């Protein structure tokens, strides 16, 4: 799903008022009735109709014909615009540049603030997985509110920001958390290569023990990354590692904590053996080496990302994990020719670091940042 920031410049205040009305209406309506949109936006029905039509044409909202009434729901495009508008208003994002990454469930863009400081915008795209899964699963997912994908994406972004903030404040090498809104996080740009792209290093033993120490230190603070691998570790030019990607982090008091901890350790061991031919008899074990000294998960809860939210997100992640396991088997069995696959192919799988360097930031300005009346509810 491409982020097309261009049209944002041509959005009027009223457009945003209506878009915000659809978002607000979505809180208790799967499909927001036209009359409610007009009411929340405080526009006369005729005026609201016209604006709604325009927003639907730009694919920021989508018309849904329900059995009992017609109405609209927000699309990811509309959700993107609402988040960008909030960032623009707060001065954290002034322009949007090139896409530098696309994960299974996220899009990563370069952005800049008004002083032209470059940052990274990560947009969560939960629900994307379902595009590629088998039909029965898809039907089952379609039963769910599409809005709930957006809600889950919002939870993932909230969680990522909360953990990044706590880790950053406690001296862990992670990007600087800059801002968050809805399903989006703005963070510091790390000038580095993912470990995945590093073919050779002078002293693998040194990096290996740094990474293992990081896993242990996290656990001493009560946390497990849960996806500690060569994609989520960036290596700066001085060789120092930076950890990214936090929506799946778990507490060391999680029921499967030992499993997650050992899996993180194992990921690094396997990678170092295969890539650098480096093996060490020394590696941390959950039961033996981890004694909890601090409680960062409590700090995270204090940040507004509650235990309840954590549970909701976890339930979704479990579901998706089961689906993706099946999907992998399915993918090996046959290459299904689902229409959506064509769309997936339009997304570059990964922009290489060289390309990234070569790319001149052709930024798209977000345009006016004047106040809209209805604010995001934080
Ligand atoms: P996902 O959840 O999709 O795996 P990640 O947060 O791991 O998303 O980011 C995907 C890729 O984007 C990373 O592997 C990295 O190359 C790039 N990236 C993400 N955040 C940053 C950042 N702060 N600075 C530089 N590159 C980043
Ligand atoms: Mg990642």
Describe the protein's architecture and organization.
Its EC number is 2.7.11.1. It catalyses: L-seryl-[protein] + ATP = O-phospho-L-seryl-[protein] + ADP + H(+); L-threonyl-[protein] + ATP = O-phospho-L-threonyl-[protein] + ADP + H(+). It is an enzyme of class 2 (transferase). Its cofactor is Mg(2+). There is one protein chain. The relative contact order is 0.14. Helix 1 crosses helix 3 and helix 6 crosses helix 10. It is elongated and about 75 Å long. It has a six-stranded antiparallel sheet, with helices on both faces. Strands 1-3-2 form a three-stranded antiparallel sheet. A three-stranded antiparallel sheet has the order 9-11-12, with helices on one face. The C terminus is likely disordered. The protein is of the alpha+beta class and 378 residues long. Bound molecules: adenosine-5'-diphosphate and magnesium ion (MG).
- Number of extended strands: 14
Quaternary:
single chain
Note the total helix count: 13
Helix content: 40-55%
Give the overall shape: elongated
List cofactors, ions and other ligands: adenosine-5'-diphosphate, magnesium ion
């Amino acid at each position: 799903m491409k982020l097309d920031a261009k049209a944002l410049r041509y959005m009027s205040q009223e457009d945003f008022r209506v878009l915000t009305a659809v978002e607000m209406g979505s809180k208790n309506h799967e499909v927001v009735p036209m009359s409610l949109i007009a009411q929340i936006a405080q526009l006369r029905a005729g005026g609201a109709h016209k604006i709604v039509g325009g927003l639907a044409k730009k694919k920021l909202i989508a018309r849904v014909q329900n059995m009992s009434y017609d109405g609209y729901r927000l699309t990811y495009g509309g959700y993107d615009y609402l988040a960008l508008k909030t960032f623009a208003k707060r001065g954290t994002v002034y322009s949007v540049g090139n896409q530098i990454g696309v994960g299974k469930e996220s899009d990563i863009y370069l952005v800049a603030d008004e002083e032209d400081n470059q940052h990274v915008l990560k947009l969560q795209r939960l629900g994307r997985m379902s595009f590629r899964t088998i039909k029965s699963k898809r039907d089952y997912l379609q039963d769910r509110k599409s809005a709930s994908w957006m809600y889950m994406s919002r939870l993932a972004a909230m969680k990522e920001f909360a953990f990044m903030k706590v880790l950053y404040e406690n001296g862990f090498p992670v990007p600087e958390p800059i801002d968050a809104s809805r399903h989006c996080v703005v963070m510091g740009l790390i000038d580095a290569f993912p470990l995945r792209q590093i073919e050779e290093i002078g002293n693998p033993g040194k990096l290996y023990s740094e990474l293992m120490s990081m896993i242990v230190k996290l656990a001493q603070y009560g946390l497990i990354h849960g996806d500690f691998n060569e994609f989520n570790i960036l290596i700066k030019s001085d060789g120092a590692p930076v950890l990214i990607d936090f929506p799946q982090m778990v507490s060391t008091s999680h029921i499967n904590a030992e499993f997650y901890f050992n899996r993180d350790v194992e990921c690094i061991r396997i990678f170092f053996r295969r890539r650098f031919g480096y093996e060490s008899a020394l590696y941390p074990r959950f039961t033996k080496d981890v004694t909890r000294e601090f409680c960062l998960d409590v700090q995270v809860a204090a940040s507004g990302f509650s235990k309840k939210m954590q549970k909701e997100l976890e339930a979704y992640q479990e579901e998706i994990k089961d689906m993706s396991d099946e999907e992998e088997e399915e993918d090996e069995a046959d290459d299904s020719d689902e229409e959506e696959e064509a769309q997936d192919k339009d997304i570059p799988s990964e922009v290489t670091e060289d390309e990234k360097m070569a790319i001149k930031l052709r930024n798209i300005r977000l345009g006016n940042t004047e106040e809209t009346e209805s604010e995001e509810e934080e």
